[in-house]
User: Which sequence fits this backbone?
């Protein structure tokens, strides 16, 4: 589609992709498995990230209209499953936003010089409520993209990530191998006898969750047939290298049983204390907190904008179609904030902050995996159902290439779903399984019930629904 917009170069697309995935929040999840993170990260890339990126690019360049995965699934599997896709992407954000909001509480504990508060459930819960409602109300009133956009990314994501990698390398060169142990077959490959450790794979997969969104740029890149797969492999390679350096050096500096999954400031504290500059931990915590709040701000509107389009198609009652004068989907935004507050209660009822964080992370991953299963199936179905649709990027090898790519993606997604139901060590197995199974059933069944009960009168007419 030529619209006069300047095409992205290969290096610009690589930069956009790395910016989208780059975050220090994932590093503790990697660090906790030591050398095995190499196996898990490469496995996640080969069985998940790369094939999903390629399938999404083919679908995005064939059906580029706004709506992304919901449009692809609707085209392949029908309106019901298109609605389920939108619903799950919206609902999983509740859990994702609780998880991200919780890191604000951990960070603020360090900013104010009270690191003990990072493991205080009540404090973390209070900050989840305050931070999320604050960014919600600001988004209702102001255009926060202009306020926090690029500044939040540079201050809160790029600088801390580069600092974490550099400091980790410095600490490890200075002290040598301390907590990581020697690299051999036994330490690098997870043992099937300790299957509960495999549930970590789900958390590592989540590092790549949302990668289908980057595929929207596939239509706007020079020579997409050649450059898009190159950008996928290069950006994935760089992402893996940077995450592994940060994860391995943290695993070397902190014993595995002392790593706090929700505390991304922990390795910085070790490194800055070693440098005799403990006050820099407060500074970096404040910077990361700015980045987290900027990310939260973007998430407040992103999924709700997709959902209001589904609502206007008649899948939800008119009350869900209301917008503010600035076009903000007010009903969805307020529901998000309310549900995030309720999900945040997990931090109060589950005593261990690490367990709460991990349970929410895994539930988010399970919901995303269901969406990815529908995207993969859509890729195969549309290859046969709509072969006449021109795609600027197609997976090499025609139908055979699509099948190979889809089988890899299906393998990774199914493995992730299976291991997600294995309770990790030091977790109440009954509570863990209850959160995952009951949470998934509620999230999947509810859109099917709503779709069944929808009425023709719900479809939006031409009148303005602005609040």
Assistant:
């Amino acid at each position: 589609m030529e619209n006069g917009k300047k095409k992205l170069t290969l290096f610009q697309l690589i930069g956009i992709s790395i910016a989208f995935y780059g975050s220090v929040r994932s590093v503790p999840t990697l660090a906790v498995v030591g050398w095995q993170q190499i196996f898990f990260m490469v496995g996640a890339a080969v069985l998940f990230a790369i094939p999903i990126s390629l399938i999404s690019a083919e679908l995005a360049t064939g059906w580029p209209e706004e709506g992304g995965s919901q449009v692809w699934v609707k085209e392949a599997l029908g309106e019901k499953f298109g609605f389920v896709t939108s619903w799950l992407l919206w609902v999983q954000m509740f859990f994702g936003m609780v998880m991200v909001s919780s890191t604000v509480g951990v960070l603020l504990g360090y900013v104010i010089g009270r690191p003990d508060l990072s493991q205080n459930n009540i404090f973390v819960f209070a900050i989840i409520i305050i931070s999320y409602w604050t960014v919600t109300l600001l988004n209702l009133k102001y255009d926060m993209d202009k306020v926090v956009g690029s500044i939040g990314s540079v201050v809160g994501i790029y600088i801390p990530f580069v600092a974490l990698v550099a400091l980790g390398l410095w600490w490890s060169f200075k002290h040598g191998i301390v907590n990581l142990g020697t690299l051999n077959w036994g330490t690098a490959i997870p043992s099937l006898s300790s299957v509960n450790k495999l549930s970590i794979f789900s958390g590592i997969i989540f590092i790549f969750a949302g990668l289908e969104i980057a595929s929207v740029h596939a239509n706007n890149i020079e020579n997409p047939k050649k450059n898009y797969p190159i950008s996928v492999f290069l950006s994935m390679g760089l992402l893996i290298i940077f995450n592994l350096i940060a994860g391995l050096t943290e695993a070397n500096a902190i014993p595995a049983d002392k790593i706090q999954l929700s505390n991304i400031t922990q390795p910085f504290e070790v490194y800055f204390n070693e440098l005799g500059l403990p006050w820099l931990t407060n500074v970096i915590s404040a910077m990361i907190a700015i980045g987290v709040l900027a990310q939260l701000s973007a998430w407040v509107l992103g999924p709700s904008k997709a959902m209001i389009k589904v609502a206007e198609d008649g899948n939800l009652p008119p009350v869900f179609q209301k917008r503010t004068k600035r076009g903000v989907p007010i009903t969805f935004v307020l529901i998000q904030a309310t549900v995030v507050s309720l999900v945040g209660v997990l931090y109060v009822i589950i005593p261990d902050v690490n367990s709460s964080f991990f349970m929410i992370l895994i539930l988010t991953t399970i919901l995303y995996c269901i969406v990815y299963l529908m995207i993969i199936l859509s890729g195969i179905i549309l290859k046969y159902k709509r072969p006449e649709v021109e795609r600027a990027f197609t997976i090499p090898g025609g139908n055979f290439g699509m099948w190979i790519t889809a089988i890899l993606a299906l393998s990774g997604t199914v493995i992730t779903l299976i291991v997600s139901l294995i309770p990790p060590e030091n977790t109440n197995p009954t509570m863990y399984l209850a959160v995952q199974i009951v949470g998934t059933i509620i999230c999947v069944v509810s859109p099917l019930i709503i779709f069944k009960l929808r009425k023709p009168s719900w479809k939006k007419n031409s009148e303005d629904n602005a609040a």
